[in-house]
């Protein structure tokens, strides 16, 4: 509910005001109560489905970025500086701001 679980105006009318519910959810997130509830429900659902409590498969995904073959960051910096100089000399400008 803190992320995108429910719209605040869709809360049942018999609950306390939204601000109170939000404070409690924030506290329960901070102290780990929500994680423990989630884990307990996860285990129960898996056991009801006849599966082991823990997941049987793990998927690991990674993303790698290749660096410049020679010189690393310095050569990249020199290349961008060179590009800036050539634009300045030619009178063209970039449409994006530089950081």
Automatic annotation (TrEMBL):
Q: From which organism does this entry originate?
A: Tistrella mobilis (strain KA081020-065)
**Where do the record's region annotations for Disordered lie?**
61-99
Looking up Pfam families in the UniProt record yields: DUF4096
Compositionally biased region (Basic residues): 75-88
State where composition is biased (Low complexity): 89-99
Identification of the protein by name: Transposase
InterPro entries found in the cross-reference section? IS402-like_dom
Query: What range(s) does the Insertion element IS402-like domain occupy?
Result: 2-38
């Amino acid at each position: 509910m803190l992320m995108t679980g429910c719209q605040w105006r869709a809360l049942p009318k018999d609950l306390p005001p939204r601000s109170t519910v939000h404070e409690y959810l924030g506290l329960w997130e901070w102290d780990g109560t929500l994680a423990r509830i989630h884990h307990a429900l996860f285990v129960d659902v898996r056991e009801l489905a006849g599966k082991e409590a823990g997941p049987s498969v793990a998927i690991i995904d990674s993303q790698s970025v290749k660096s410049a073959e020679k010189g690393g960051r310095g050569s990249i910096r020199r290349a961008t500086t060179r590009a800036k100089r050539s634009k300045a000399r030619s009178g063209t400008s970039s449409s994006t701001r530089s950081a």
